[in-house]
Every structure is written in C-alpha cells, then in structure tokens.
Amino acid sequence: MYRLAEAGAKGDRDALQRTMDLLATEAAEQGRHSQARRLTGLLAGDKPRRASSAAGRVGSRGLPESVRDLLIDRMPRRTLGDMILPAEIVADVREVIQEQEETALLRANSLEPRHAILLVGPPGNGKTTLAEAIATELGLPFLTVRYDGVVDSYLGETAARIRRIIDHAAAAPCVLFFDEFDAIGKERGDIHETGEIKRVVNSLLVQLDSLPSHCVVVCATNHPELLDRAVWRRFQLRIELPLPDRDAVVEMYRRLARTVRGSGFTQEKYVDCMLGRSMSEIEQFNLDVKRRLVLSRGSMTASEVALIVLSRWCRQQDSLVENERVDARKADRSNSTRAKARKAHPREKAADPTQADLPGTS
Questions:
Q1: In the chain, helix, strand, coil percent, each to 5?
Q2: Where is the composition biased (Basic and acidic residues) (predicted)?
Q3: CA dist 109 to 73, 96, 102, 240, 337, Å?
Q4: How many whole angstroms separate alpha carbon 196 and alpha carbon 283?
C-alpha cells in the first residue's frame, strides 16, 4: 500500500501500474476474481468507475455541496463472503454483479444489466450489509440516502431533493442505497397520507425510471406491505432476507468456536438460544463473548465466559417471549373485535402486492 501511495504521489504511472498488478494477482490468488479484474483494467480505462481517491473518506466530505446533506458517501468494506446467506440469494446477487461487470457484452447484444434491487425482511437480517457487499464486490462508492436531509414539510421540496440525489447518482457508477424505503415509497392510496407524500411517490417513480444501468439502486424495507404497487414494478430483483435458519445459526456457532473452545459450551446450547433471533443479534452475542473474554484477562476460560453470556441472553429471550405472549393475547382480542366489525360492515379487500408470486422474487 505504501508503494501504491508513493507512486501516486510522484505521478509515476509505471510504478503505479506494477503495484496495481501485484494487488490484482494477490486478489486473484485469494479468490477475489471480480476485484482482480477491476484492478487489472483500472489504469487502462477498461471500466470507467467513479474516482475513489479518497480512500479514507468518511461521511459526506467527498460529496458536492448540492447533495452533501442528502447522502452519506463511505467506502464499503463488507463482502458477500462475510455474510451467511441462503445459496439461492447468493446466486441471485452474483448474477447481478456479473451483469454489471459484463455490461459491454450485454449492450453489444442490445441488453442492459439489471440495476434495481429491493430487499425485504425483518430488521437485523442483513439488508444494509448486503447492499454494502454489492458495492464492495463491484468496487463502487456506497451512497446512503439521509432521510433527515431529504424529507421536508414544504411543498415540493422533498421531491426536488430526491431529484438532486438521482442526478448525482446518475453521473457516474455507484451503489445508491435507500434504507427504510417505505418512508418515501408509500402506497398512494393510503387515506392517512398527505398530498405531499403522494407527490413525492409520483416524482420518485419517474426518477427511478430515469436512472442509468451503471447506477445500482438498492432499496430496503421492513414493511413491504406499505410500498406503493407501482414501486414494486421498478425492481428487477426482489430478495427476501429471512431470519437465520438452523444451518445459518450452526455456521455462526462454528465461527465463534474458532475462538471459544472447551467443554460445556455445546452447539446444541448455542442453537437452542439463538434460533429465532436476527442475524444482527447473533453477531452481537458473538462479539459480546469475545469482549468478555478479553476483559477477563485470563481469569476465566473461553467456555466459562461463553456460558455466562449465553445464560444472560437466554434469560433475556425468556423475558421477551413472555412479553410477546402478552402482546399476542392483546392482539387476538383486538383482531376479534375488528372481525366482528367487518362482519357487520363488509367491504372489498384491497390487493396486497407482497402476497403475489412476483417474477424475480427470491
């Protein structure tokens, strides 16, 4: 990395190319073939990508003034290999990455790569991480929309700000990430929403249609039922990220077991406590064990630390389950009351786009 920085500072293109070639070779040997291809062709200009010279940039400092309060621009670091995902989801994402990398071939055959992805599922199961991983695999800047800077109570201002975001993203290749997309992509038929939100959705649909295929837009939502029907059609790939299944939890145990060894901490205990939790919670548990182990300064074995943390988490789980049971009983009573009201005043049920078998849904 020092040689790369030195060559860049001196403007020595030959040294820069040699260093880039070494990095590309290293990436290929480690199985990072996508990154290797990008490094090989970077100086030759095979694939025009947005300049990423600010390797240490944080927040919005590298953005122009017009969108500095609307976007967060940061270097993506998570990869698909960091994640534990169902094989079919990995395959779907790999296809989109391949299409983006082979844009020239597709265009030679009058085709465009897919570039609009919708991620749905419960919170904490990797939607943001997957969006970042896509940016990492493509070697592109990762731009996250800041809703605190976008949404405004003044008529038309929100739509204008979205337009500025789209214009900036369209200027050069990037991954544009809308988290909690239902905040601006809500169903226009919702009687509880204001006219401003409906105008924002109209503008959003037009702006999404205008995005060129070199801008990969990834939208995430915990509430797909709130999205406008027309919004769904804008996404060429729709992926549902479910709670981790048993195989995923077992893999998380194995990753932790590389650090935590010893009797008393079994896979069965781990799975029994973690199954049903989000991936984010499981990751936090693993980190909690590692933190306590470091802070114990050798006074406890790894398995002793793990058992203490596991016991605490299981107690918390029991408390949450009891609270959920209370909430469920309240919900049952409320649903019963509404059901009686519907029988007294029947009306046609609105279609829910999330319940249909949509093409491209994973």
A1: 55, 10, 35
A2: 324-335
A3: 34, 17, 11, 31, 59
A4: 39
* Token pair 């029947």: residue: 346
What mean pLDDT value characterizes the chain?
78
pLDDT 10s digits, 273-297: 899 999 999 999 999 998 998 999 9
Q: What is the enclosing helix (H) or strand (E) of 219?
A: strand 215-221
Sign of dihedral through CA atoms 294, 296, 301, 306? negative
**pLDDT category of residue 164 using cuts at 50, 70 and 90:** very high
Query: Cβ-count burial of 201 within 10 angstroms (0-12 exposed, 13-18 middle, 19+ buried)?
Result: buried
CB 21 within 8 A of CB 40: yes
CA distance 28 to 48: 21
What's the Cα-to-Cα distance from 118 to each of 10, 227, 283, 305, rounded to whole Å? 44, 11, 24, 40
The amino acid occupying position 301 is T
SS3 144: strand
| Residue whose structure tokens are 């590298």 | 62
Q: Are the C-beta atoms of 124 and 279 separated by less than 8 Å?
A: yes
- pTM of the shown model: 0.70
- Rounded to the nearest 10°, the torsion over CA 40, 42, 44, 46 is 90
CA 352 distance to own-chain centroid: 24
At 123, phi and psi to the nearest 5? -65, 150
Adjacent-strand bridge partners of 142 = 74, 175
Identity at 281, one-letter amino acid code: E
Residues for the chain: how many in total?
362
Both tokens of 163, joined, read 């337009």
> What residues contact residue 315 under an 8 Å CB cut-off, 6+ apart?
none
Spatial separation of the C-alpha atoms in residues 116 and 319, rounded to whole Å? 40
Beta strands in the chain (DSSP E): 71-74, 116-120, 142-145, 174-178, 215-221, 237-240
| 3-class SS of residue 276 | coil
The encoded tokens of residue 122 equal 């419960």
3-state secondary structure of 35: helix
Exposed e or buried b per residue across 226-248, where buried means at least 16 C-beta atoms within 10 angstroms of its C-beta: bbbebbbebbbbbbbbebbeeeb
What pLDDT does residue 55 have?
Answer: 38
